[in-house]
Q: What sequence folds into this?
């Protein structure tokens, strides 16, 4: 090996070590919950396209199919990060990752202001050795994980098409920490669901918001 090669190796290693040490020195100076809504109080203040219904004796926001819902938060305290925690319910026959353009991919995504932050897919399909419709969650698209991977609840019935069947609504908790410093923010959620062969797509695949929590962080 020539000396130039080893200089490049050592230089790259030094950069990686420095980045690692720098990331380890970040300190959470302050955390404040600025928004927490499980919709039990019928509160849709700040929402655009907000709507409520009862599912399994709980009030939730939804249900949605390929339509944006958002909440606008004002007068945030000083911060440089936001932690957004969303609990969602995935209803009925989500198909995950298939790229046939007919039954999938079934995307769900959210973002802040005009920027998409996280995009993934979900699958409520049974998974057998001979047939399995994989999803990307808990990773972003495109990853191959088993249906319902990372779920916090899986034993609920479907909402519409599979309303008479158990295990066709799945609950997930998605947490993201995003750089942000403005005193207001718009958080939006949406989906791109594909089921070209169903005359009532919203009954075939939909989703709902079960809880939204936002924390303003100061990290140094």
A:
């Amino acid at each position: 090996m020539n000396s130039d090669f080893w200089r490049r190796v050592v230089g790259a290693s030094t950069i990686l070590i420095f980045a690692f040490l720098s990331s380890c020195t970040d300190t959470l100076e302050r955390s404040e919950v600025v928004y927490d809504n499980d919709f039990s109080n019928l509160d849709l203040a700040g929402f655009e396209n907000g709507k409520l219904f009862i599912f399994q004796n709980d009030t939730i926001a939804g249900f949605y199919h390929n339509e944006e819902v958002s909440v606008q938060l004002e007068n945030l305290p000083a911060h440089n990060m936001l932690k957004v925690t969303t609990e969602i319910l995935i209803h009925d026959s989500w198909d995950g990752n298939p790229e046939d353009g007919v039954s999938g991919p079934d995307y769900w995504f959210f973002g802040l202001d005009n920027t998409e932050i996280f995009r993934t897919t979900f699958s409520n399909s049974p998974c057998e050795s001979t047939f399995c419709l994989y999803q990307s969650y808990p990773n972003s698209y495109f990853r191959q994980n088993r249906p319902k991977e990372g779920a916090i609840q899986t034993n609920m019935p479907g909402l519409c098409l599979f309303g008479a069947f158990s295990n066709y609504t799945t609950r997930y908790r998605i947490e993201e920490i995003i750089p942000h410093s403005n005193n207001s923010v718009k958080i939006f959620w949406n989906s791109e669901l594909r089921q070209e062969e169903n005359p009532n797509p919203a009954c075939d695949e939909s989703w709902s918001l079960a809880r939204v929590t936002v924390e303003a962080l100061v990290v140094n």
